[in-house]
Design a protein that fits this description.
Blueprint lengths: L8 E5 L10 H8 L3 E4 L18 E3 L10 H15 L6 E5 L8 H13 L3 E4 L4 H9 L8 E4 H6 L10 E4 L21 H7 L8 E6 L9 E6 L8 H4 L3 E4 L9 H8 L2
Parallel strand pairs: 1-4, 1-5, 2-3, 2-4, 6-7
Antiparallel strand pairs: 7-10, 8-9, 8-10
Helix pairs in contact: 2-3
């Protein structure tokens, strides 16, 4: 059997809870890397394979500039990683969650690799979308809609009030810039509240959800009336997503249901 070819670059998701969500596949990928770039802030000994404990892990967040437009920071980090392939291969980019769920650096790496003929492998991880559903104990079926909070408003998208909605990146709503030194509170959501109350009544109960990432600790779930969302604290808002339950349940096609029962 011929040896399995190695990609030039691994994009590796570690999940939300470290090290509990680190998969065998992620561990195997990291063990093959000559160098790792990471945004994971837990100590490397918590998630690195033991044989790699002496390897240098480069903190990709040091490439982010406070106050800069976030897309510029993501581009800088991805370009730095691609350039480093001249000195070592394979490289790994290690991130939280699932790399294909709201990680622009990962998306940039895929685009730049395609342009340069660089081979890569994406290693999936448990995303915050998965943990939020578990935190709320709600089922994805029969339908759910997911939006970036700012994107929803910028493009004037009308949420379907017959389907639960999940808004991601709520804590950075209304800003394209990186702000690590300051935490926004609910006042930053006034524009989002104004927009959502075009579709839902202010009394509609919603939930700010933030998975703790710590095994055994309950998630932070803050239920609040939509019209009061701009009054929440920075602690409630930091890193949270917004879950909006169904307002009106849709009416089924009874003839279709009857026909399906006969098949």
């Amino acid at each position: 059997m011929p040896p399995v070819s190695q990609p030039d670059l691994y994009i590796i998701g570690l999940g939300v809870s470290i090290p509990g969500h680190v998969t065998v596949q992620a561990t195997r990928a990291m063990s093959r890397c000559a160098r790792l770039y990471s945004i994971v802030q837990e100590p490397p000994q918590m998630w690195l394979p033991k044989e790699k404990w002496g390897m240098k892990v480069i903190n990709a967040l040091t490439m982010y500039e406070e106050g800069s437009v976030r897309t510029q920071n993501y581009e800088r980090a991805a370009r730095t990683i691609i350039a480093a392939l001249d000195n070592a291969r394979p490289l790994g980019y290690v991130t939280y969650g699932n790399p294909m769920a709201y990680d622009r650096v990962a998306q940039n790496l895929i685009e730049y690799a395609k342009e340069s003929g660089i081979t890569l492998q994406v290693v999936p991880g448990i995303s915050s979308f998965d943990t939020i559903l578990c935190d709320l104990r709600v089922e994805m079926a029969p339908a759910i809609q997911v939006y970036d909070a700012s994107w929803l408003v910028i493009f004037g998208m009308a949420p379907n009030v017959n389907v639960p909605a999940l808004l991601i990146q709520v804590s950075v709503f209304g800003s394209f810039r990186t702000h690590y030194s300051q935490r926004q509170d609910g006042r930053s959501l006034e524009g989002l509240v104004e927009y959502l109350t075009r579709f839902y009544p202010p009394s509609h109960m919603v939930s700010l959800v933030r998975s703790t990432g710590q095994e055994g600790e309950p998630a932070n779930v803050r239920k609040v009336a939509l019209g009061k969302l701009s009054e929440v604290t920075a602690e409630d808002l930091g890193g949270a997503s917004l879950y909006i339950p169904v307002l009106n349940y849709p009416k089924p096609d009874e003839e279709m249901i009857s026909a399906m029962e006969q098949k």
